[in-house]
Structures are given as structure tokens and as C-alpha cells.
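Allow me, if you will, to draw on your knowledge of protein folds for a short while. I have a record of one protein: its chain in single-letter code and its fold written as C-alpha cells. The full record is reproduced below for your convenience:
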Amino acid sequence: MLVKTGRRLFAKRGYGAVSGEEVVAAARLTRGALYHHFDGKAGLFRAVVVDAMKEVNERIAQAAHGATDPWKALELGIRAFLDVCTAPDLQRVLLVDGPAVLGWRAWRELDLEHGVGLLRGVLRRAVSAGQMAVPDVDTASHLIAGAMIDGAMIIATASGRPSVRRQVEQSMLAMLRGFR
């Protein structure tokens, strides 16, 4: 309940504008519950970020599920990821407040923990199918994930301009075609 309530409030107004007291009041819980489960507002925010990252991962997996081959799954997954990056609530929690509140290193560790596994799996399948050639799948996974995060940051700061979303997708897919 705290994660759901915190996510709604943090997404709407941002981490800095929401107090721990406001979250527990909206969740109809006590401040003690916040500290017992999350050790305060910062711990709750970390849980909110993890929850949002898991949601993104699920959306990507769902989008790529019906793909006929690994390359198509990769394309569909990237498109789904970029679509998710246009959602204002996810932008605020994951791309704006996430790195600022948690710190880049902690945020990136969470991103690698919750996002790179899916990407690594599809890259392995694409390499095995002869659709891609990369010297090392693990390294390529990290580099591609980094490019995807930078693309997401570009989209998040573009003030909702659809042309930016399209440019990021076109550039990302063109870059990946270099591995074919």
C-alpha cells in the first residue's frame, strides 16, 4: 500500500514536494509503518523506483512476446521501452527523480539489475540465431542499455515532442543494425 501510494504521489509532484507524513496519511497508515518497512521516505522511494522498473520490464517482455525471431523481439522491446519513456509518471520517477534522489551509481545498479537481464537474453538469442555479431554479449548488453537510458533521458527532457521520440528510436535501431 505504501509503495502504490508513494508512487502515485511521487509521480504526480516529485520526490522533493512529497513528505513522508503525506504518504502515510494518504495510505492510512502510521509513520511507524513507513520506518518499519522502508526506513523512511528515501527507502520508500527506492522501492517505488524498483516497482516502476519491474513494470517497465514487464511491458517490454509483453511487447516482445509475440516476436517471430530474436531480432524482431529486440526491435519490439526497444520500441516498448521508448514508449514507456513518454509516460510522464514514469519519466518523473525513473528518469528525473530516480538518478537525482538515489544518486547515479545506485540508480544505475538498480537499472542494471532490473533491465539488462531481458536485453542480455534477447541479444544471446539473436547471436545464437546468427542475426547479430557482437564480441561479448555481456559487454554489448551494458553498452546498449546505456544508449537506451540516454535515449530515454533525451525523450524525458524533450517536453513531449513526438519527433524526438521518433528520432531516438530511428537512431537506436540504426545503431543496432550495425551489429547485424
User: Anything to note?
Assistant: The CA atoms of residues 148 and 172 lie 7 Å apart. The first helix runs from residue 2 to 13.
